[in-house]
Amino acid sequence: MAKLILLLLKLCILFFAVHAVFEDQVGKFDWRQQYVGKVRFSHFDTQLQSSKKVLVATESNVFAALNSRTGELFWRHVDKTGPEGNIDALLHHAQDAVLVVGNGRMLRSWDINVGGLNWEMLLDTGSFQSACLVGQQGTVKHVAVLKKTVISVHYLSNGHQKWVENLPESETVDYQTVYSGGNGQVFVLGIVPHSHITIVVYSMEDGEIIKQVSVEVSWLSNIPASCAVVGQGMLMCVDSTTMSLNTLDLHQQLQMTQIPLQSLGLEVDPDFHPSLVSHQPNPAQKPLSEFFLQLGPERYLLLQLNNGQIVTLRDFKPALLASFATTGEKTVAAVMSPKNKTACSINLFSADTGRRLLDTTLIFTVDPSGGKPERLHVQAFLKKDDSVGYRVMVQTEDHALTFIQQPGRVMWTREEALSDVVTMEMVDLPLTGTQAELEGEFGKKAAISLDGLLSMVLKRLSSQLIMLQAWIAHLWKLFYDARKPRSQVKNEVSIENLSRDEFNLQKMMVMVTSSGKLFGIDSKTGGILWKHYLDNVPKNAAFKLMVQRTTAHFPHPPQCTLLIKDKDTGLATLHVFNPIFGRKSQVTPPALPQPILQSLLLPFMDQDYAKVLLLVDDQYKVSAFPSTKNVLQQLQEMASSIFFFLVDSSQGRLSGYRLRTDLSTEQVWEVVVPTEVQKIVTVKGKRPNEHVHSQGRVMGDRSVLYKYLNPNLLAVVTESTDVHQERSFIGILLIDGVTGRIIHEAVQRKARGPVHVVHSENWVVYEYWSTKSRRNEFSVIELYEGMELYNSTVFSSLDRPHAPQVLQQSYIFPSSISTMEATLTEKGITSRHLLIGLPSGGILSLPKMFLDPRRPEIISEQSREENLIPYAPELIIRTEWFINYNQTVGRVRGIHTAPSGLESTCLVVAYGLDIYQTRVYPSKQFDVLKDDYDYMLISSVLFALFFATMISKRLAEVKLLNRAWR
Amino acid sequence: MAPLLPFNVAVISIVLLLTCANLVSCNNGRRVGDPLEAELSGFSVPLEHSFELDDVAKFQSRGSLLLKTGREPSVSLTQNQLSEDDRSKLKEVAAVDGLYRIRVPRVFLQADRQTEWQMDGYLTAFVRACAMVESHLSDVITLHTDVSGYLIGVSIVTLPGACRGAEVEDEVDLEVFNTTLSIMAPVNAPGPETALFLERMEQESEKKGKNPQEQKSFFAKYWMYIVPLVLFLMMSGAQDQSGGGAGGGAANGGGR
């Protein structure tokens, strides 16, 4: 085997020169942004006054520490996706952070200074309910974890279990909360809904039950939602039906005492479910006797429990959010109240008196393109004069974190929505003003006859004057910058000076995130140039982003359309915007009352150069956007050549439709894959902006094998419903999307998904899991017309009677993959690579050359002539193929490729938890001179040669003259 | 003369019988979905077609497909001629660039019992009517099945496939279908070819073992090339290490 590998390596080296990133190129053409996801728990590190850490645990199963000064990551731990890695609780004490992960499956302790794992314990099965730190005599040494039927207590230092006890009557009682007031007792609160509360008190020492009482409560069903422990072990619950506060002393457990809110002089919104917020600064001590009661969406009350009496300390109205924070011995309450439409003010109040602290106002400017504030995380600290200062981290609906210092200076913002990018597009930047001016002049050819010659001349002169002006300004800037030291010259990219560069390498990345926030990111630097939050996006929305008008049609602004579809109802809305500035377009999109089945962007444009978008609703009626008279007329003319297909994977039905002149549709073909045997998992067409440069491949004997380049071809992947490893299979159907003709049908036996497919040019590459050999395998299908083309000028699906030749070959791949995409270049001359996102975080650029079904098993003279690599069953991952060197990309979900103005260069964006942007050169930079190209040498040689010719010419002349005289 | 009479009768009866048999076979060919045939380890399903001026599908019988079930399903077709009305209609439809559609019912080819093969719904396909006319009704119909024998799709193409606007003068050309029919099951996609590769590797190593000349190490064999190369490299220095990249890349790019 070793020999085999050695031989393969030799072959590889013979065929390819090494291409990787040079050390000084790191970060020059690429950038990475790391995210954590929507924050679920957060804690400030309060050990030291100067500590800069914010601990966050997120809904993306990430646990991380952020630098509170800059917003950068100190460290980050990414757990498994899905419920297995779900973070149930985050407890923080001194240097340790304890996480409960995977519905109580794991208990982990992390050292927050370095982010290292202290210990990890596997817990018994059982669904997680609650966890808390347990303190005794002022020190915290244990952590208690409550599950459905069992409570366990672990040492904080090493995670070992101190004791574990089964909960009494756990079949009937629903245990929900665990609480400890620092006096050597652990209280477990459970409930039998609409009957009674059960309180079990355990001794901290040995887990012995000290007391077990039940108290009649008929209305309560969920303790954490409506109760909180306040002061000296008083359980405070709020009842929204009778509008009252109920207190229960956990130590005496007599019965609940009801205090109607009206007796406190309080009115409650009838539709609002009130809630309580209490605060326990130190787990070894009792909680504060002050607590917040939220009475309405914009009303909070600071109350105090004083010897069984409830005192109103302060009524906050209006107040959006309220939160406690402790520093040293002092506890403060921070309250955010709306100031005006664009700003909120945050004030600090003393927790025990409710008095406002002086000079603590902080202004939070609500971003109009962002969401409403959702949560408030307060970091309080003692100033030198012993007064309390604070900073806040505001979490908004669009998953953004904003860290603000007094009096309202935004220190940093993290756009955590970008951790879940759903779809993206790369849009060319607009031309500069002068370029546009020139374009505009040549663009208006039709107007020549009207304007006459003179005005044209004047226009030309004026535009050239403007260009001259711009050039002088540019020169001046160069001169000015040259005098300044290098470090001070900064090329700040802002939305005003955005313009296309010479080779169109810098583009606008329009990213759509699952939260409904749209971003415009500069592809060169990664800076966010605009953002826009759509606040009416349903939770389970599917997005489709389309570029209707590019920047090429000055003075018409570029236009993108986002189709947002509710997956349950199928109802859709359109958001039309300018991709360069992010502004909503003036064009009003049509209202879509019917569920939408399919959308397609047609290749023809209306008179304003916007591509026509067709939307098919569930009545199979078609509506066009834009739907001007011109468009409808064009549609009528072209109706008989507009075909589209629909896929109903629940019934296994693929059907083709043709447009009629009255914008209704007719079904023209139907293919049904019985769902009893297999289900359709993926349908992949080709990318519309793909160009294929060569129509065929030159064979060893100088004949040409023509490619079958059907732009309407669909690759349909099915998976068997039978999952037994001997009988499971995946099916590949190649169907013509216009005629419904099945071009090729193959099954890969003893295989199962997930299947990743790339479909481009005349080939389909797919990856699957082989159940027989237990490994990942790649397979490639290539289609050829044969040695002659049927019709070389134009391709029509309706007129291509001969079935193509199908070649297929498979390979072993040594890793599983997350996602796959093919590179794309301007003209399609450059050879193709496959970009493969691996679960390890690497992005592999695998030359398509290795996935070629014509790789011969026996090397012949002809195959050598054709430059075919001999067949080897294994594809080897070579480390220099990783385009992101050590910049691992967490949880890659998608890779987007876009052509640049240079044929050799393809822009790549990989997104997932992180975003990584780079450029790839699949055939090396054959159209670019190297950075270290020696201009001096070349020009001096040229000059020397020039002078040499001049001199020798002169000498020759003299010699000739001399000879003539002789 | 008397003995001749019965012979005569016999001849007449034979002739009669023959004509009867002929008539029966003619009928058989035209009838659709004959239950008699289903018993012969196969069954027949109707093949229907539709070509209308207003493009609203009205399917009529075109013929019947006799499907043989079993491990290797096969298919044969008996079909009607186009009537005069149909011929003229087809030409009219072709003139307005209408569609010629066909459909077959969804069936299950591996069913043991006759009742099991039928499922609800049809599979449809189309060609342009003009292509049908210009090819003089020469079409290729392919039925596709899945792994377990369900019919999943049907496709129709004409030969030649193009519409060039050629007039078909002779009505006779549009009378009889000239159909090539086939049934296709999915092919098995190949897995990685490890066995063959290993065999080849072994062969190569054996060959090397036989020939001691080959066993010499790389350096022993090629030292006369390597030494001057190394010397040359040392002389020229390491200054243009990166120079080769661009050239190699261009060659790479051109090679596809």
TrEMBL record, chain A:
GO terms for biological process: protein folding in endoplasmic reticulum. It is found in: Endoplasmic reticulum membrane. The keyword Disulfide bond applies. Residues 20-416 form the EMC1 first beta-propeller domain. It comes from the Eukaryota. Keywords: Disulfide bond, Endoplasmic reticulum, Glycoprotein, Membrane, Signal, Transmembrane, Transmembrane helix. Pfam families: Beta-prop_EMC1_N (PF25293), EMC1_C (PF07774). Transmembrane segments: none annotated. The keyword Acetylation does not apply. GO terms for cellular component: EMC complex. It is a single-pass type I membrane protein. Residues 760-965 form the ER membrane protein complex subunit 1 C-terminal domain. Residues 1-20 form the signal peptide. InterPro entries: Beta-prop_EMC1_1st (IPR058545), EMC1 (IPR026895), EMC1_C (IPR011678), Quinoprotein_ADH-like_sf (IPR011047), WD40/YVTN_repeat-like_dom_sf (IPR015943). Component of the ER membrane protein complex (EMC). Belongs to the EMC1 family. This is ER membrane protein complex subunit 1. It comes from Poecilia reticulata (Guppy).
From TrEMBL, chain B:
CDD domains: EMC10. Its main location: endoplasmic reticulum. Keywords: Endoplasmic reticulum, Membrane, Signal, Transmembrane, Transmembrane helix. One of its GO terms (cellular component) is EMC complex. It is found in: Endoplasmic reticulum membrane. Pfam families: ECM10. The keyword Membrane applies. It is a single-pass type I membrane protein. Component of the ER membrane protein complex (EMC). This is ER membrane protein complex subunit 10.
